[in-house]
Amino acid sequence: MKQPLLEARNIRKSFSVKTDPFTPARQLKAVNGVSFHLREGETLGLAGESGSGKSTLGKVLLRLLVPDEGEVVYNGKSLAGFTGRDFLSFRKDAQMIFQDPYSSLNPRMRVGDIVGEPLRIHGISGSAGYRDRVTALLNRVGLSEDHFFRYPHEFSGGQRQRIGIARALSVAPRLIIADEPVSALDVSIQAQIINLLQELQSEFNLAFIIIAHDLSVLRHMSDRIAVMYLGSLVEIGATEQVFSRFLHPYTEALLSAVPHVERQSRAKRIILKGDIPSPLDPPSGCPFHPRCPYARVDVCTSTPPRLEEKRPGHFVACHYSL
Question: Could you count the other beta carbons within 10 Å of the beta carbon of residue 28?
Fold first, then answer.
């Protein structure tokens, strides 16, 4: 089997949080023992509720945050052993598209400089070809040469996200992590951005990790889907496997909330009891057991389930998987 482009091996990341000035700091476990791999040219969708640790995991994978335990392996090499030169090469290969297309762009820079800044940092394009290359990138994402000297506030949300995509593409990356790339956009614009990302993946053989809470978006874009809950990976498998033969009750609940056009395909909506527990005080045993309709007191409340392969390529962390 060909070596994965990216591997996460038992990643753990916590933050020290003080709830008030008079009590000691507590540990918030944002990512709790996550492992998976990503192949070249593949799209992995990362799903889960707000607070499940998806965005923190994405930042750890790009070494924007350093993990407390575990390691991220890129192209067979651990990021922990990278030198300055290695990191410069990695930063070129791995890019990020952020959720908010306005706050991720410097309001004091013109669009041409925003898109072209990575070219200057990595010394890819000299002054002679700089303008032409930036213009070509703008054209590729649906913008024009006239936009080169404008500022971010002069653009709509969808156009600003296109600028962010052009910036990520500028250094010819192999991997892009997109953190909720369409959640801040109107529905009509979402479809345009999704189609653009798919076209770019096909054209440049990009590997994507798409972080989203909208499973219908992930179904349209992903080869595989990984579901996170309270910092842990609870299910991962091929997209159609997860949608048609899910194994975890949390995945079942998420899928029941996806709207269907066909009346006959409408499944009963599953309403989970309570809210997602606080990562400051996670439940014992299975993290999902306080909200799980199938939980059993004897095992689920005391023993954390391991992520195990129940079908070929289909993994789940559940003592009594469906």
Answer: 19
For residue 308, give the amino acid letter: E
185 neighbors 161 (Cβ within 8 angstroms): yes
Mean pLDDT along residues 236-256 = 93
Cβ atoms of 211 and 179 closer than 8 Å: yes
Q: Which amino acid is at 176?
A: I
Q: Which 3 state secondary structure label does DSSP give 104?
A: coil
Secondary structure class of 60 (helix, strand, coil): helix
Chain mean position to CA 87: 21
- DSSP track, 125-189: S-HHHHHHHHHHHHHHTT--GGGTT--GGGS-HHHHHHHHHHHHHTT--SEEEEESTTTTS-HHH
Q: Are 139 and 131 in contact (CB under 8 A)?
A: no
Q: What value does the mean pLDDT of the chain take?
A: 90
Instruction: Supply 273's token pair.
Output: 């009891």
Paired tokens of 238: 């091929």
Structure tokens belonging to residue 24: 């000691």
Share of the chain above pLDDT 90, in %: 66
Q: Give me the count of residues in the chain.
A: 322
Tens-digit pLDDT profile for residues 79-94: 999 988 899 999 999 9
